[in-house]
Structure formats: C-alpha cells, structure tokens
Write a structure and sequence with these properties.
Blueprint lengths: L11 H31 L5 E15 L3 E13 L5 E14 L2 E2 L4 E3 L2 E3 L4 E4 L2 E8 L2 H13 L1 E16 L2 E2 L3 E12 L7 E2 L5 E8 L1 E3 L1
Antiparallel strand pairs: 1-2, 1-13, 2-7, 2-8, 3-4, 3-5, 3-6, 3-9, 9-10, 9-11, 11-14, 12-13
GO biological process, one term: defense response to other organism
Protein name: Late embryogenesis abundant protein LEA_2 subgroup
InterPro entries: LEA_2, NDR1-like
Length: 209
C-alpha cells in the first residue's frame, strides 16, 4: 500500500492525512521563504579579521630540510553586522610558507559572536622537525639569511549565521593573514622572555565565506 499523502483509502482518514501533509509542506515552504527574504534584506557581511601580533619562541631550519617553529599569535575578529550573529562552530589556525603547511593545526574553542562584537584569540601554533620541500627550504634559507621571513597565518573553519531566532546551515570560512617577520633585528620587536620576541603586525586578513 502506498504511504503517500492522500492515498490512504476511503473514508475521512485520507482527507485528513492530505490536509495534515499539505499543512506541513506549506509550513516548511513559508519558513524557507522567510529565511530567504530575511537573508536577502539583511545581506550579511563577512567578519573582519586582523593579525595583531606574533610572538616567536622558535624558528630553526636544520638539515636535511627540517623546520622547528613555535609562535603565539594574536588574531582579532569583528562581526560587522548590526542584526546578525555568527556561530564559529569550528576554527583551526596554522602557519604556511609558500603554500606548504609548516605547523600543526590549533583549534579555537567554538564561540558565538553577537552583533558588532569583537573576539580576540591568542593560540600557539607550532611544528617540530617538519619536513620542508627542498625548493621551499632553499627559499626559506635565503629569507633567513636576509633576516625577513614571510609566512601566511591561516584559519579554516565553519560558521553559521543567526538572524533573530533563525540559524542557517554551516558555511566554510577561510582566513589568510600575511605575517612579515623581521628575525634579524630583535629590536624591532618586544622581548617577552629569554628567547621570545613579540612582533607587532596589525595586518588586515583576507576572508572568504
């Protein structure tokens, strides 16, 4: 016997089932249309990210092409929407050099960011004896000899938008922050330990959702 709406045989039961199914379908359609209209009218703006600083505890390239690094970075996020909140369900931060990942991924705890609110995170990102591609090792060695190293701090994750009581599905978030670090001149930073130097960066990051 078919279980489709309205195919339950004679009597009043079939009509009742059809009306119930019709009401459910109509309700779902109304909810979807409402979410779409709210989304179009409010036009959510993606969050702004800024890489504020990086504290370098270790950055050593050894043979054969192994990199050991340890950073603590400060990254700030601002929700620029006045009527839309943001759920950061998952966010992982790591460093790359010339598109090669050079540290482990560090997880940021899930959080909610209200309207026009700011969040600041200071995770550690590190890697021990990470193998570096030979051509990248040569380029990195040259940069170290010149005293300036250019890294990209990345944050990848999933976000949801909250509009009133409505919460959207999950969207991919990709953040890219340029970190230009002057390793040759430690006076360019602030000494925060015996071998640690904090470099003020304040670089605006690219954000894709």
């Amino acid at each position: 016997m078919s279980k489709d709406c309205g195919n339950h045989g004679g009597g009043g039961g079939g009509g009742t089932a059809s009306r119930i199914c019709g009401a459910i379908i109509g309700f779902i359609i109304i909810v979807l249309i409402t979410i779409f209209l709210v989304w179009v009218i409010l036009q959510p703006t993606k969050p702004r990210f800024i890489l504020q600083d990086a504290t370098v505890y270790a950055f050593n390239l050894s043979q054969p092409n192994l990199l050991t690094s340890n950073f603590q970075i400060t990254i700030a996020s601002r929700n620029r929407n006045s009527r839309i909140g943001i759920y950061y369900d998952r966010l992982h931060v790591y460093a790359t050099y010339r598109n090669q990942q050079i540290t482990l991924r560090t997880a940021i705890p899930p959080t909610y960011q209200g309207h026009k609110e700011d969040n600041v995170w200071s995770p550690f990102v590190y890697g021990n004896s990470v193998p570096i591609a030979p051509f990248n090792a040569v380029a990195l060695g040259d940069e170290q000899n010149r005293g300036f190293v250019t890294l990209i701090i990345r944050a990848d994750g999933r976000v949801r938008w909250k509009v009133g009581t409505l919460i959207t599905g999950k969207y991919h978030l990709h953040v890219r922050c340029l970190a230009y670090i002057n390793l040759a001149d430690k006076a360019a930073g602030i000494h925060v330990g015996e071998n640690a130097v904090k470099y003020m960066l304040v670089n605006k990051c690219s954000v894709n959702v």
